[in-house]
Design goal:
It is built from six helices and 15 strands. With 295 residues, the chain is α+β, with helices and mostly antiparallel strands. 39% of the residues are buried. The model has no long low-confidence stretch (mean pLDDT 92).
Length: 295
C-alpha cells in the first residue's frame, strides 16, 4: 500500500536542520517522495516524530490513507471508544455513547453516520481530509487525541454574523426530528451553531430575532431556547453533530452522551481548538477525537 505524504500544508524549510517545518522531510526527500519505494517512505515516516520534536513543532500528520482515516472514525464510533467534538471553543457539540445505549453506525461510501440516544453524527471523509495529532510521539496511539482537518480548498460553510433562517434542514440525520434550521450567528468560519425546530412559537421568536448577533439576542431569546430545548446542530466542513437531548437548566450539568455548550466567554477567545492545538493555515478543523482515557 502506498504511504500518504506527510505534508501538512506548511512548506518552509528550517534553516538550522534543513527539514520542512510542516512535514519534517528534507528538500530532496520531498522532491523524491513520489518516486521513492514503500520501504524508503516508511523509514522517513518513522523519523518524522523525532525530527519534529527536535524543531519544537507539535503538529504532526498521521501516516493514514483516506480509507484508514475512515476506518478509524467508524471503529471509534462502533466501539464507543471516546468522544468526538465539532465546533469552536465556546460553541461546540460532543458525541459520545449515552450510558446504557448502543451506537448504531453506518458507512456509506465516504460518509459515516452514527446514532445513540440523544444525538447523531455525520462525517464526510474523502481525499480532502487529513488526520493530525498534537500529542508527543511517545503517546500510545490508543491514548492520542486526533484532529480530522479538512483542506480549505474543499470549501467552507457560509458565515452568518446574526441569526439566519436557513430553511428546512435537508437532510437531517435524525429523520424523526425535522424542522426549520436557524444559524445562531456566531460569525465563525470554522463552524456554525444552529438550532432545528418545528415549534411555531420557536420559529416566530427566531424569525423576529433575524440578524441579531449573539450578544443582541442571548439575554431575551436564550431562556426561550433553554425552555423549548430545540435540537442543536453544529456543522463544520467535515460534517455535523445533531443533539436532541435536553438543554440543562442554568447551573445544571450536561448529560452524559451527546450534548452542546454555548458559552459566550469562551467564544471571546476566538479559538477553534484548545490551546496548544493550532492547525496549519491550509486546513479547517473538522472534528476532534478524545480517547476515553483522555476525555
Amino acid at each position: 500500500m502506498t504511504l500518504a505524504s506527510p505534508c501538512t500544508g506548511v512548506c518552509k524549510l528550517d534553516d538550522a536542520t534543513g527539514w520542512c517545518l510542516g512535514c519534517a522531510r528534507s528538500g530532496p526527500e520531498i522532491a523524491d517522495w513520489r518516486a521513492g519505494t514503500t520501504d524508503w517512505r516508511s523509514a522517513i515516516w518513522s523519523e518524522i516524530p523525532v525530527r519534529l520534536s527536535q524543531m519544537g513543532v507539535a503538529c504532526r500528520r498521521l501516516p493514514w490513507s483516506t480509507a484508514e482515516i475512515r476506518d478509524f472514525a467508524a471503529k471509534s464510533l462502533r466501539d464507543g471508544a471516546g468522544t468526538w467534538t465539532m465546533g469552536v471553543m465556546g460553541g461546540v457539540a460532543e458525541f459520545a455513547p449515552t450510558p446504557g445505549h448502543s451506537v448504531q453506525t453506518a458507512v456509506m461510501g465516504d460518509t459515516i453516520e452514527a446514532r445513540t440516544s440523544g444525538g447523531a453524527i455525520r462525517m464526510l471523509i474523502d481525499d480532502g481530509v487529513r488526520a493530525l495529532t498534537f500529542d508527543p510521539p511517545s503517546t500510545p496511539m490508543e491514548q492520542a487525541r486526533v484532529v480530522l482537518a479538512v483542506k480549505r480548498e474543499r470549501g467552507r460553510l457560509p458565515v452568518a454574523n446574526g441569526i439566519a433562517d436557513l430553511g428546512p434542514d435537508v437532510p437531517p440525520i435524525v429523520t424523526e426530528d425535522t424542522g426549520q434550521l436557524f444559524d445562531l450567528g456566531l460569525g465563525r468560519k470554522e463552524a456554525r451553531f444552529c438550532v432545528r425546530t418545528s415549534d411555531p412559537d420557536m420559529i416566530d421568536a427566531l424569525t423576529a430575532a433575524a440578524g441579531l448577533p449573539l450578544d443582541g439576542w442571548l439575554r431575551t431569546l436564550g431562556p426561550v431556547l433553554g425552555a423549548k430545548s430545540p435540537t442543536r446542530v453544529v456543522e463544520t466542513a467535515l460534517g455535523r453533530i445533531e443533539v436532541t437531548s435536553r438543554i440543562p437548566p442554568p447551573g445544571g450539568t450536561s448529560p452524559e452522551g451527546p450534548h452542546t455548550h454555548l458559552l459566550p466567554d469562551h467564544l471571546q477567545t476566538d479559538r477553534a481548538l484548545p490551546a496548544g492545538i493550532d492547525l496549519p493555515r491550509a486546513y479547517l478543523p473538522g472534528a476532534m477525537f478524545y480517547p476515553a482515557q483522555a476525555a
